User: What shape does this take?
Amino acid sequence: MRIIAEAAEGYAGRWEKELALVELAARAGADGVKFQLLHPDELLVPDDPLYDLVDGLRLPPERWRATAERAAEMEVELLLDVFGRRGLELAASLGVAAVKVHGSDMLNHALLR
Assistant: This one.
């Protein structure tokens, strides 16, 4: 059995929280830690009331790279939820252990290919 710590977007756009969640997952004995890799335009239209909230949770690629490095240092796998092609490409470039595709994308054949 494998244990995956669900961090989602628990970092709330704050760098120190993201790294702390990786470290806590590793210290708790989890095999992996999973975050949501958010790009607001992959989830919402710009005039959606939640667009700015999701945009505030987005992290730049260099922060995701540092998170992947920290997970490797802590010997915990990094897994990411992706919601579109840009997120999937970034996850692939980070060499994550796995990605989770949201149920709403099960018919998104372009993304699944």
